[in-house]
Amino acid sequence: MARKRTRKVHYIRYWQSESLPELLQQLASKYGEKTAIIDKDIHVSYQALNDQVLSLTSGFYKLGIRDGNRVLIQLPNSYEFIAVCFALHWLGALPVLIMPAQRQHDISALCQLSEAIAYIVPDNFLGFNYPAMAEKVQANNSCLQHIIVAGNSDIFTPLASLNAKPLSFSPPNATDTALLLLSGGTTGTPKLIPRTHTDYIYNAKASAQLCQFDQNTVYLASLPVAHNFPLACPPGILGTLSVGGTVVMAKTPGSDETFALIEQHRVTATAPPSTTISTTMADRSRMGYHRHIQLKAITSWWRTFRA
Fold first, then answer.
1. What is the CATH number of the domain that holds 219?
2. What pLDDT, on a 0 to 100 scale, did the predictor assign at position 3?
3. Average pLDDT, whole number, for the chain?
4. Element (H or E) spanning 280, and its range?
5. What is the pLDDT of residue 13?
6. DSSP code for 3
7. How far is CA 34 from the centre of its chain?
8. How many domains does the chain have?
9. pLDDT digits over 201-214, tens only?
10. 77 and 163 inside one domain
């Protein structure tokens, strides 16, 4: 009995009855036209992000995606990645988050494992033709009904074509599974790791509080956001958005791109690979740092550094 009471206290204290799409709606209502995501030259406000999510939700529904369906997402760091995930959350569908560098062998195995009905890819990223790979994966997996392409495609469904007039949907239960992350894959094909809405939100919010993130935080997402670390821990994209901050999307973690973005957008926090922490700190002069730019926190795998 004491153990049950303890679990109940922990649930009430830490886990809230809130799903990810409900969180986004609250953020849109609170922060409105404040910039949520910067992706190249595109600045997306909290309200615009929520509107885009609702539009995509209707498009996915009309395509036939339903509660419990699994959808493979293999997109680079982008505004579309975030919008797609939140839209699938509204339907109770489960995003299976795949790294951009993974190829046909892993994708086919993950498709079979998850019994995914859809696969979302870019038209091209770093010179690789993702739709061509998706076509081969689909040929070997009868469960895969839809290939959706972020960009141009004459064969498959363009993601932009799914924008539709928003319909009314009920949010998922806070304790439902929200998404499926991948394990490290050190023993073969990666395994699927389920995360619930409420535990993922708590994780992001608690780490944002620990790292002292707020509305003035500008977070640079440089590692692939399909990974849990830049997505929500610690505090990642979700943690930044939960406090009204701004997320800047980098396509690659290389210093040539990230240093320029840090200066251009006055980034205050980022999460580079741990091996680059010392280089980043030593190369502030090469980044073009001036007194008006202050990198307040760099979160690595092991600790939070104050710069």
1. 3.40.50.980
2. 47
3. 89
4. helix 277-282
5. 66
6. H
7. 19
8. 2
9. 999 999 999 889 99
10. yes
